[in-house]
Amino acid sequence: MDSNISKALWLGVSILLFIAVVTIGLSVFGSMKDASAAANDSINSIAQSMAEEDLRAFDGKEVKGDQVLGAINNLSGRSGEVIVLVATLGSNSGKSVDLDPYKGFGLSIDRYTQYVSETEGTLSAQDDCVILSNGSDELMRSVSKTVRDAARRDAENTNLAGKYINPAGRFRSYLIYDTNQVIRGIICAQVE
Question: How many folded domains does the chain comprise?
Answer without folding.
Answer: 2
